[in-house]
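Q:
Got a chain?
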Amino acid sequence: MGISSRDYYRSDSASGDGTGWLSDTPTVRWIIVATVIVYILQLVITTREQSPELLDSFGRPAVITESLVDQWFAMDVSAVLHGQVWRLLSYAFLHNRFEPLHLIFNMLGLWFFGCTLERMYSSREFMKFYLVAALIGSVGYLLLSMALQTSGGPMMGASGATMAVFMLYGAHFPRQHIMIFWVIPIEIRWALAFYIAMDLFPVLHLIGGTNLHTGVAHAAHLAGLLFGWLYYRNGWRLENGWISLTRTLSFRWRRATTGRQFKVYRPVEEDPVVDIDAEVDRILAKIHEHGTGSLTAREQAVMAQASERYKRKL
C-alpha cells in the first residue's frame, strides 16, 4: 500500500470537505501566507541611503535602497550578541528580495513535505517543530560564526526550517521518489545524502580557513537537518515538552507568589513537661476544686498543648 492511500497524505480535494486551499493543514497555510506577506513588506518598506564606497556614472556617491525589514529582522551575529535575540527566529520569515526563487523553492518544499507531516503530527506540534527548527538553524549559524570568529554576514530565509521538514519527511518515507532539478527521479534518502554533502563541503572548507563565498548559510541547513533527524530518531514531541514546561513554571510561580503570604507558626516553647498526662490530671483536679480562674499561664499552656495532642490522635 502506497503512502498516498493514507488519510494524512491525502490532498484537500481528496478530503471532500470543500473548505479551501490547505484547509486541513492550517499551519502550513499560515507559514506560507505570513512569509509571503513579509516578503512584500521587504520590498515596499525601504530607505534610500548614500554609499560613499560606490559612485554613480557622474562620480557622485551612489544611492542604495535598503529594506528596513531586513535591517531589523535578518539574522545578524553582532546584533544578536548585543541583545537583539528576536533575530534568531524572525530571519526565517525573510528572503532575499532580489531572488524570488529563494522564497518560491522554500515554500514549495514546505508545501510538498510539510502538509503530510502536519497531518501526521497535528497542527500544533508541526508549528512548534517548524519554529524550533528555524531557531536551531540560526543557533547553528551563530555558534559556527563565533567559533571561527567571523561575522558570517546577515542571514535570512526559511531553509534551515524547511531542511528539517525535508529530513523528517525523508526519515518516514526514505524510498519515496522525488524529482531533483525537476527531471531526475531519486529516492529521498539519496537526495538527503546529496544535500548533506553539498552543505558539509563548504562548512569544512570554512573550518579549514577557506571561505568559498557561496552566499548560502550552510551551517543553518546542517543544523536543521540534524534537528529533523534527532526529532525522528528520539521520538520527540514538542507539544508534550511545552505542556510540562508551562506546568512547571506555573507551579513554581504559584509557590513563589503564595509563599510570601504565609509564615510558619512556631509556638513558644514552655518548660518541658516530663509526664504530661499526670500534669493534666493535676490541673483538672485543680479546676474542679478552684475553677479555671485559678490556673497559671504555664498550666493554661499545658492544657492547650494536651488538647492539640489529643486532637492529632483522633
